[in-house]
Design brief:
Layout: H1 3-32, H2 39-46, H3 51-55, H4 72-91
Helix pairs in contact: 1-4
């Protein structure tokens, strides 16, 4: 597969992932808001070592996105938004 086709395929995968998470949030949002966030997700999004998080958020300035994680809804919301960031990164 040539590079251009590979990049386009990757963008399609990330776009589909965003759409899938968005549908899941719309369908299960109220239930997810009642459930606690898992420690690993809280650590990933709010921990002290966010090097890789910032490193791969190339469409915005470093440290400009520090999501809140209050429940499982927030976790999936942020995963969904990560997929959009991946698309932006590929475009950049």
């Amino acid at each position: 597969m040539n590079r251009k086709r590979h990049d386009h395929f990757s963008e399609c995968v990330e776009s589909h992932a965003f759409s899938t998470y968005d549908k899941f949030l719309n369908a299960q949002g109220e239930e997810l808001k009642k459930l606690p966030a898992r420690d690993v997700a809280v650590k990933y999004y709010t921990g002290d070592d966010l090097y890789l998080f910032d490193e791969f958020q190339t469409s915005r300035p470093p440290q400009s996105r520090r999501p809140k994680i209050r429940n499982l809804y927030d976790v999936f919301f942020n995963i969904r938004d990560d997929e959009a960031e991946h698309c932006n990164t590929m475009t950049a």
